[in-house]
Fold:
Amino acid sequence: MGTKAVSFVFVCLVPLRLFAWGSGHDQVNELAVEMLHGTVPTESAANIVKWSHTPDDFTPWDKLKHFQVPPDDLAVLKAHRMDSPYSVHSPRGQAVAFILLVNAFQVNDAQRIAFWSACLLHALADEAACNHDPLIHYATYAFTGGYRLKTGAGVGLDFSNVARTAEGKELVRRLAAAETWRPLPSDPDEALLAIMLSGLESNAYMTRRGSIIAASFAIGATQEQLAASKIALAELGVHGAARGRDVIRAGKELAEHGRIPKLTSQLEAAFAKRKAAEVAARPLSDDSLYADLLKTQAPDDQSAIGVLVEPSVTMNQAHFSFGSKLITAAAARSMHLAGVPFRLVDVRSLEKESALNPKVTPVLVVCAGPFHVGKPARDALAAYATAGGRFLWIGGEHGGLLGKLSESLSKGDPAVLPVSNHYGQDTPVAATARFRFLAEFKEALGEQSYRFVHNPNTKAGWQVPRCSYLLRPAASVTVLAEMHLPDKTLPVAGAWLGPAGKAKAIFIPEYLIAPYVLSDEDTIPDLSRPTLDKVGSRMLSAALATLRP
Structure:
């Protein structure tokens, strides 16, 4: 699946074709061609399928070998700063591809119609492809693909897993037949806005099905769960094909009426405004990863541990890291199983309300990743800390919100970091690093050293648990974990102690608590309801005990 890299500078290092619906992009485009019968030229059909993976390519447009982009199209792409096919993954890129498709229809160029149709179908299908769900993404690239953990058999994680079997093909045909055409607005500006906003709808359509698909990988999954998973997986592929069909038909109609859309700064501003409104209104329950937690969290008037969460939006766009949703949900589920009251705290609430009340939320768990939150949320978190709130911070970035602990954190030399900041790469110390726990963590985890049982540096995936910080010992800061290398020992986790010796904040690198990294457990009983492993659960319990007022 194509993954839009908004926050991460290492996107340029991504190998090609790692993020697609896998071969499922071929099946999506084949289905779309069937649904487009009579809309695109007959000679375009084969290439729409053949070129289905084009947007996963970082090759400059004018260097593509399978299609020579015409000079007029290159000029449009250059004017909109679209450097390669990969740029089509963004809402802006989808709008530009649509403009070029309308141009292709206007001159009835079968090759260009096929090329821009293939690009749009890929990008639009990616918005609903299941491995852009935070749970399925983690399952695909870490749990099953990277760590090789044991699960139930499952029905698969790619549309091709259902679209290639006789039973699956019949299911797909039945679902596709029920997909009525949804025409885009006839106004060119509104049509472009609809295309740019469509990813939000498709993302919600997809994340509502994440746990349903994951449930088929539970040990002892029932026939009902397996059947529901097949339907959910098929629905996602059909949704992508149908939305692509709608866009391509709209492109042809605009061309026939001579209405050529233009992407202007005013239109992009309108998109940003409407996107913000839709994101603000999105229910947290659209992320199936949170569905059971919303039912088991503590009432608003009960004192409980807060867990900072956010809804999915599109691809890997996030305030935090793409893996933070999985880790925070796993932490909350582990707390529930241990009888510890918890409450999900939606980051959007911090952007429009006063700070959290430490009396009802004495501790807030934050898995921060790059920590791309705006000033209102940062101010609310700072006010919470000033009022006596305490942080269990899993980093990632720390935003300077951890007082003396933040002052003691500094970026480490990449040569000694156990998890790479570069996509798909390992680090020199990943195999040799050993971790020992001190103080309160030692009581929970023992004196033995831990190693990466499962290397978190997976060859693919955005969920890699990165942390670039090391801890410098300082007054009022207690070291809770050290990384031992053959020639040095480096503190990596710690607590900031207040005047009474009680912890006000704890910082833990994401790679220490990410599920199944340090633990020798080899099986996930229920992939749809992940928890922290035995090492992470003990670490969480020790941290919360240290932080509780």
In short: Residues 46 and 387 are 64 Å apart (CA to CA). The mean pLDDT is 92. The first strand starts at residue 305 and ends at 309. The radius of gyration is 24 Å.
